[in-house]
């Protein structure tokens, strides 16, 4: 496997870039692992890495539906979502940081007049908690949430909404993601895809790189 450089990627003819948040531009996998562990083990369900892999691209609503269906939980999905948000909030506020080099790379895009979007299955209120430290609203031209389109990354609507807001064509838009399902969805609508090596110890970067047009190891 050969890692691409950001310089090589910038040399391609792109007019817009879409970024994932968790894992891709911010170290958060350890946080969601803690949330998942606490949630499932409090219900007597042993946590496994496979649970994290399944939940990662689904977002809160589909994730709650999956948990209820898979483990026959007699619970209200809205209450599960609230519990996840509260657990996530306590970990997110003080510990989430952007990965080294991300801000500098996005500033390079701005200098080249390349528009940017954040596309995430995270809830808007969770990322709003990070605004005082990370300034995401000024870093990106737009932020698109799964809640905005009513679907997660197993369907293309999140990315299509980002394209519409950026007024960009898919074939000239680069997508940075760190999970196979998201890369595959991006490929399905002709986005240029880049796999991002992340802090998730269960990520198979070799497998991911085979799905993507580019692969990067870090942001610097």
What's the layout of helices and strands?
Blueprint (H helix, E strand, L loop, with lengths): L5 H5 L5 E4 L9 H13 L7 H7 L3 H13 L5 H19 L6 H10 L3 E6 L3 H5 L2 H4 L1 H4 L2 E4 H4 L7 H10 L6 E5 L2 H9 L3 E5 L8 H7 L2 E3 L4
Parallel strand pairs: 1-2, 1-4, 2-3, 4-5, 5-6
Quick structural overview:
This is HAD-superfamily hydrolase, subfamily IA, variant 3. Helix content is 50%, strand content 12%.
Count of structural domains: 2
- The first-level CATH class name of the largest domain: Alpha Beta
Stretches where pLDDT is under 50 for at least 5 consecutive residues are none
Task: Give the strand order, joined by hyphens, for the main sheet.
Answer: 3-2-1-4-5-6
CATH superfamily of the largest domain: HAD superfamily/HAD-like
How many strands in all?
Answer: 6
Strand content: 5-15%
- Written as H for each helix and E for each strand, in order along the chain, the element string is HEHHHHHEHHHEHHEHEHE
């Amino acid at each position: 496997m050969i890692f691409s450089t950001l310089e090589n990627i910038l040399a391609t003819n792109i007019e817009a870039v879409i970024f994932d948040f968790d894992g891709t531009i911010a170290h958060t996998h350890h946080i969601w692992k803690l949330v998942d562990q606490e949630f499932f083990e409090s219900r007597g369900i042993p946590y496994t890495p496979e649970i994290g892999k399944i939940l990662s691209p689904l977002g809160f609503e589909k994730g709650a539906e999956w948990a209820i269906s898979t483990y026959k939980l007699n619970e209200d999905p809205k209450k599960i979502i609230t519990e996840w948000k509260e657990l996530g909030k306590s970990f997110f506020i003080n510990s989430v940081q952007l990965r080294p080099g991300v801000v500098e790379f996005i500033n390079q895009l701005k200098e080249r007049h390349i528009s940017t979007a954040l596309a995430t299955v995270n809830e808007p209120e969770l990322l709003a908690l990070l605004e005082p430290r990370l300034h995401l609203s000024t870093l990106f031209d737009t932020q698109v949430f799964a809640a905005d389109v009513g679907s997660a990354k197993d369907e293309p609507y999140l990315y299509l909404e980002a394209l519409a807001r950026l007024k960009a064509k898919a074939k000239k838009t680069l997508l940075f993601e760190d999970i196979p399902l998201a890369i595959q969805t991006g490929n399905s609508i002709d986005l240029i895809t880049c796999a991002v090596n992340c802090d998730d110890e269960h990520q198979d970067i070799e497998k991911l790189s085979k799905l993507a047009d580019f692969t990067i190891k870090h942001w610097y």
